[in-house]
């Protein structure tokens, strides 16, 4: 078997092989070559696995993104995608060989971590990836969608949820592409776990709505100065359901205004927020607390550390302390013991021979890295071993983020 990098000339073969691996057929691109998800592929970052006779049997790709870490801090991150093996060549080591080659190349680029969306939860942990963010669906019946007036008052006598002085304008997707791109980019720079959406994605309509040019109504929120600072992309389908693709907001007040707009829509029986952040306060704002029904709670972004010291020193920190971490990376056959020292929001991470406080797999380190999963949860699950009392609690305090991580981008 041979694994080689691809070029632009390999695009059709790459796409056909990937679709065959999943038993599907490619869609038809627009006349401009856009409108399909693979129009944003970076062919200089993809791999083809070839059988002995030269036939393509597997694919693996990677996008160039920025990931927002706690801090917030922006770092380059490879978005692993388009991974597939033909049914005729599964369980022959093709996938493992491609993943090992890919991780080696990503390290060679100097990147400290990679991310992916897992088609199956059982596949990618063995390659060192851990689930780091979650998402869910929130469904609200229209007749129970009233929001309660805010009760708490701030220091100025006005609650954050009631302080919005902006306006909501209704546009069509075709009218506001630049607005969506600009608002999302400002949002993702402050939201831990968020990925960038490069301009080529928007320009080529490569992705799911509202990145794609599929017809959508868009509620655009503008601040008091007229600057767009939020949007909700939605469509109405049968049976009389308004589905929100995503809600992007600069703050809670903007989110509340956009939620109030879609929850008050006429001639629908229910409103579905398709990509709802766990722990979001909207459920508490409903006058009928039981009206919001959560479903589809699932993992979303998986994180893989390629350089443990580099990744740990890249993010921001909010508590001072020291931890000695034993980190095992069985897929790459590596092991390291590191002293993590945090002072004044910055970390130092160096090899050490001190006794460990925690022992963990690199995939579990990926799960806690963005602050969405506490180390003590994985200690209780039997994934992480704490070697002394108080080590898990200290790790919880150290790895927390300023806000829950959430990722909306599909790739």
UniProtKB/TrEMBL annotation:
- Keyword field contains Transferase: yes
Q: Which Gene3D superfamilies match?
A: 3.40.630.30, SCP2 sterol-binding domain
- Residues of the active site are 124, 411
User: Which intervals hold domain N-acetyltransferase?
Assistant: 1-150
User: Could you tell me which Pfam families the record lists for this protein?
Assistant: Acetyltransf_17, Acetyltransf_9, SCP2_2
Task: List keywords of the entry alphabetically.
Answer: Acyltransferase, Transferase
InterPro entries according to UniProt: Acetyltransf_17 (IPR041380), Acetyltransferase_Eis (IPR051554), Acyl_CoA_acyltransferase (IPR016181), Eis_dom (IPR025559), GNAT_dom (IPR000182), NAcTrfase_Eis (IPR022902), SCP2_sterol-bd_dom_sf (IPR036527)
Q: Which residues bind acetyl-CoA?
A: 83-85, 91-96, 119-120
Residue ranges crossing the lipid bilayer per the database entry: none
Matching entries from SUPFAM superfamilies are given as:
Acyl-CoA N-acyltransferases (Nat) (SSF55729), SCP-like (SSF55718)
Q: Which family does it belong to?
A: Belongs to the acetyltransferase Eis family.
Subunit notes for this chain? Homohexamer; trimer of dimers.
The protein's name is GNAT family N-acetyltransferase
Species this protein is from: Streptomyces anandii
